[in-house]
Structure formats: C-alpha cells, structure tokens
Specification:
The protein has about 240 residues and is α/β, with parallel strands linked by helices. It is built from 10 helices and 9 strands. The strands form 2 sheets. It has a 5-stranded parallel beta sheet. The protein has a 4-stranded mixed beta sheet with strand order 7-6-8-9, with helices on one face. It starts with a helix and ends with a helix.
C-alpha cells in the first residue's frame, strides 16, 4: 500500500511539473508575455549573445554559468517566468530547472531567438548591431553555390550538440566526395545576416544546391548513411 501511495505521489508530481512548464510558439509566447502582468522574462544565452540583441525588458541569466541556479532563486516563484535562448536547447533545460525549483508558471519559447528574429519581430539591439557578425556576403555565397557540382552547405554552431556530433561526418564526406560534390560548413554565429536571408531559423541546417538553385533542405541530426543517400541521389 505504501509503495502504491509513493508511486501515485510521483505521478502527481510529474503531472504538476508538466503543467508548470509550457512550450509556446513565438507568436503565442509574444501574446502571452504581453498579456501577463508582472512577467519575468529571462534570456539564458551568454552575455556576448545577449549584448548583440535581445527581447525588450529581458534579464540575462546565462544557463551555462555556474551561478545560474543561485540567480533564479532571486526571482519570485509565484510570478510567471518566460524563458528563451538562441534555438531552444538551453531554454528547455532552464525551464526544467525552474520547474524543479518550484516556479509555478514557466513558459518556454520554441525555436528561441532564431525563430523570433527570422519572423521579423522587434528586438532591443545596439545601434551597431548590423555590423556585428556580418560574415559572408550574399555575393560570396552565390559564388560558393554556383557550381556544376552538387553543393551541400552545413550551417552549424559550437554550442549546438547535434552540429558538433555531425561535424566529423561532414568533414569525412567532404573529402570522400571532393571530386563529385562541394561540401562546405558555415559558422552560424559568424553569419547571422546570411542565415536570416536564407530563412534559416534552426540548426543544424543542410542546404543542397545545384547550379546555384536550392534543391533540398534538411534540418536536425542525420546519420552518415542518410547523408550519403542524399548526396548520391543528387550528384
């Protein structure tokens, strides 16, 4: 009987945490945030990312910083908390920590700052933000993809776990198919303007081009066999 009661209490606790932690699309996140009085808005990216642009009135609590758990203890657990990062990985983990710490209403933005900016929503940014991480120009990118060979472009970032996991495979394939295809990697953080122009709002992103035209776009974790299948079908 005691074990049944413990199991039942565990189920209730899990259910209450699920209710406390809610994922919202960028539009729903914006609407809920605007409609909520005394909302606490957290940007859990690094201070460097935050300085390049963020949602208005957001506070920066770096999830990767060892002081994160101490920082959130200063917040009011009875007031709603809205949390976002760049693409959703860190905010999801942060939302879980907030729920575990007893915050009663936690809202996480799906897709993060990438989705927010790619949809044209306003941000608070320094006047010279346009010059930050400008990266590759449109002309340079067009020259890169203007080839008779298949061109595969991998948009990655060092903070993106799936990106880093696949990088060795991408480099291996670049060498293996160098006579038949051009396989290139582009650092997302250093090419945000280009990524926005190309409509990239989540990474890893793999864009396949032939003679300058986009023929295929894939996102997320892929195995080597899937990469090879896509390359072989399009070379």
């Amino acid at each position: 009987m005691k074990s049944i009661l413990i199991s039942f209490l565990g189920i209730l606790l899990t259910a209450s945490m699920a209710v406390a932690q809610t994922q919202l699309s960028t539009n729903d996140f914006q609407n809920k945030l605007n409609a909520t009085k005394q909302a606490q808005l957290l940007d859990v990216r690094t201070p460097e990312e935050f300085s390049q642009g963020h949602l208005e009135s957001a506070e920066n609590f770096d999830y990767k910083n060892a002081a994160f758990k101490d920082q959130i203890e200063k917040l009011d657990k009875n007031k709603p908390v809205f949390v976002y990062c760049l693409s959703g990985g860190r905010s999801s983990a942060a939302a879980k920590v907030l729920s575990e710490k007893g915050f009663t209403d936690v809202y996480e933005m799906q897709g993060g700052f990438m989705k927010w900016t790619s949809s044209g929503k306003l941000i608070d940014a320094p006047k010279d933000a346009g010059a930050v991480n400008k990266g590759m120009s449109s002309a340079d990118f067009k020259e890169l993809i203007n080839s008779d060979k298949l061109v595969m472009v991998d948009f990655y970032a060092p903070w993106c776990a799936p990106c880093i996991k696949m990088l060795p495979t991408v480099h291996k394939l670049a060498e293996e198919y160098k006579s038949k295809a051009n396989i290139e990697t582009i650092h997302y953080d250093q090419n945000k303007a280009l990524a926005k122009e190309l409509g990239i709002d989540e990474i890893p992103a793999f864009l396949f081009y032939k003679k300058g035209k986009l023929i295929l776009r894939k996102n997320g974790l892929m195995e080597e066999a899937e990469f090879k299948k896509l390359i072989e079908e399009n070379i």
